[in-house]
Amino acid sequence: MKKNVLIIGAGGVAQVVAHKCAQHNDTLGNIAIASRTLSKCEDIVSSVLEKGSMKVEGSIKAYALNALDVAATVELIQQTESQIVINVGTAFLNMSVMSACIEAKVAYLDTAIHEEPNKICETPPWYANYEWKRRDECKENGVTAILGVGFDPGVVNAYAKLGCELLDSVDSIDIVDVNAGDHGRYFATNFDPEINFREFTGTVYSWQNSEWQSNKMFEVSRTDDLPVVGERTTYLSGHDEVHSLSQNLGVANIRFWMGFGEHYINVFTVLKSLGLLSEQPVTTAEGQEVVPLKVVKAVLPDPSSLAPNYTGKTCIGDFVKGKKDGKDKEVFIYNVADHKEAYNEVGSQGISYTAGVPPVAAAILVATGEWDAKTMVNVEELDPRPFINLLNTMGLPTRIKDEEGDRPVSF
Amino acid sequence: MKKNVLIIGAGGVAQVVAHKCAQHNDTLGNIAIASRTLSKCEDIVSSVLEKGSMKVEGSIKAYALNALDVAATVELIQQTESQIVINVGTAFLNMSVMSACIEAKVAYLDTAIHEEPNKICETPPWYANYEWKRRDECKENGVTAILGVGFDPGVVNAYAKLGCELLDSVDSIDIVDVNAGDHGRYFATNFDPEINFREFTGTVYSWQNSEWQSNKMFEVSRTDDLPVVGERTTYLSGHDEVHSLSQNLGVANIRFWMGFGEHYINVFTVLKSLGLLSEQPVTTAEGQEVVPLKVVKAVLPDPSSLAPNYTGKTCIGDFVKGKKDGKDKEVFIYNVADHKEAYNEVGSQGISYTAGVPPVAAAILVATGEWDAKTMVNVEELDPRPFINLLNTMGLPTRIKDEEGDRPVSF
């Protein structure tokens, strides 16, 4: 049964989601795109029509919406007869959009954990602070809510679940995210610098020996020889998926590692040490009040401007370590994506592509009923097989590497 | 004959000048300190009185003055019966203060070349753009104007002149300025960050083979094993003294080299590359207009706050290379100063100390008549001997190093 989709947000990820929904509008039906700035939604609609992304004849329309306004969001869901909402707006909107979905009794998907503007890095597990408080409400209303179904979190949660099924017992899951792409600029962030830097200024929580451990950013590193992108150093980082996998899989060690080049770390360290990443205003000699982080954002390139010249690959995957048939075993389940191919297909760079394709795959699985859970779930609570199979056909193929070699995965 | 002094400016260098004038008020008479902010002048007066710096009973008074107002400056010179003006205010004031001195027929001393706020790094030789245009006027009025009589420019000009007298012919003069001090902060500039960074964002002019040569900052370096501070790398930099020595000494190669640690260069490079040292305003996502350099200034430590914890030494001197008795000869004429000793004596760090002591020595030589030129001169046009002798007794002893060893210099 076809299900209409409402996309909330109009950034680089929303652009990918729109193109991918259009490519599958035989399953997903009508597409609505809503954000505060109507013109950004209209630009995405134009891009989809220009690229000829619509698989079958259908409707794709732009709407202006303040998604913090629950009543307005409910009204738009009803007006557009949407049955699935894909929320890829800013992380500050999640709770409002979820409220609207519960009220309208439609499916809710997002790709990042809820954040409150003035709070950085709250108590772990993060999902328990906002999302999970509404699990019962979803269940009572028969509402499917799939949390964090981008790439990481999202696909890597499915990889973690798959790893647990492939092995007899699992001791550790190490998720590694490397962007080996080159945008040709002196320095740029791949998404909003303000949100990007917020990720790295707080405590790094990891799950080790079945307990929360606290570290600082860039304090702990590992180096792996990864498929395609080669030897890369990654750093223990705080990330959403650690906060659900630790609670759902019964695995003692769950860690997230983000790759950074020396140049990125150097620029970050200089800016942070000088106080230029601060959200607290300073006063200039002339008496002007300024938030330094907002000035840094103003001088950095607009992330969407990077896409046309972005080259190189990303490699994101899970090292799953444990026992199989009484012997030690490690598998690496991963995807490699290409910035240029992403741009050619949907006009976005690879980071937006890997984040934007998975929620559309999830929406298709909700539409077909395979993932229509009728309650709130994180991705590792669902069967990873149909998701991985579908992503194989949608531009994000999964591979596995172990002592038997490196090969594609499908079921 | 005692000569009263008017000090213009109330920063770290003015503080040193005031203390040193007080220590020699048997020659220099009454002391007046004037700047836009009266309270800063009053703080300096208090510091002088608290330290008991006055050698003999005398007057030291604070005044509010906008030194861009020539008539007001003339009036203050007359009211205070000052015969020597030591201008250590911002470099934007020079021409106004000089006008007042010519009108009042009193001596004028400064320590840095005139700058216009909106122009960075004008055509060489810089002195010809402003100061030297008024040389005839000084001569006609019998006014002594000694330009750039801090340490560099200033003492290093006297060293250059002395080097030319010690050798039969000189081929090159390389002035090396190393601050091997440690203020214990992640990053700080030794004087106003805005003025400091202005020095390094323009073209680097040097005098080579009797012609102006243009380079970029950090493009050319040299490494020397220097007395006390050891092996240090310095970078070809633009600096005032090159613009007078090149015109006055008939030497084919005159270069200025500033020492920077790798850490300083790294921070500078990151900030400059990101556009954070720009004087041009940017607009934040919220629509606020901000000059990035002013925000950088706001987050950096106030340079005067560094003094109490500053340790280590400075080494500034001239490598003079040429012929003596038909043989190749090189001498290094230099001074080593100590940050902590400077702070203990006058409450300022070493950079302010080396800049502030020489103009007081020059004022004393004007008062005694030895340097009372009755026209406009740069320091290399005066006899270096009495200046070096006097500085030996005032906290800035000169030493010489050549093939015969390393020894103090006096005449």
From TrEMBL, chains A, B:
* A Pfam family assignment: Sacchrp_dh_NADP
State its Enzyme Commission number(s).
1.1.1.-
Q: What class of enzyme is it?
A: oxidoreductase
Domain Saccharopine dehydrogenase NADP binding spans what residues? 5-146
In the record, what terms sit under GO molecular function? oxidoreductase activity
Going by the UniProt record, its keywords in alphabetical order are: Oxidoreductase
Q: Which residues form the Saccharopine dehydrogenase-like C-terminal domain?
A: 150-395
What is the name listed in the Swiss-Prot or TrEMBL entry for this protein? Putative Carboxynorspermidine dehydrogenase
Organism, by scientific name, is Marinobacterium lacunae
